[in-house]
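Quarterly update from the structural biology core.
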Amino acid sequence: MTAAKPARRGRPGYDLESLLTVAVKLFNERGYDGTSMEDLSKKLGITKSAIYHHVPSKEEMLRLAVDRALDGLFAVADEVAEADGPAIDRLERLVRGSVEVLVDRLPFVTLLLRVRGNTKVERAALARRREFDRIVTDLVKAAEAEGDVRPDVDPAVTSRLLFGMVNSLIEWYRPRGGASAQELADALCKIAFTGLRQS
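Predicted structure, tokenized:
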């Protein structure tokens, strides 16, 4: 029986996942427009042609990154759409699930929330965000119709304020040593659904 060959040492290779992780970090630090393929190759320590082996363009990396965030949010929305129960409970589940996605995919959601529509990929991402916003607004309307949400605030405003709180997490939440996704979701839902005022 022959001994197994020792693993080769040296600079590790990059797969698409690790390349995307580095790219998203740079996009968040420098902005998508401010990051060149040359910047990426220097940061990765590989040639531009090695990057192109995995992905055809910088724009495709952006698409993969924002889709990672959006696909997570829409998976939660689909799960909520299939659930039974009062709209207010489904709305809370959507908020909780969105917090979990944000914590789990923080760099990707951060990038998504910073796109401005300067490219075709960014415009497609913004269109999907508007679709998600409509889902939230429809749930707020349904909860209002069921008598569980106050009727004197426009449902679109309510949904924007609600997800303004969720989205603000990208500005201050840090995974290491911070609250868990569950703790964040609990705190946010207490404030949003019960309110700050002591009963």
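The CA atoms of residues 106 and 170 lie 7 Å apart.
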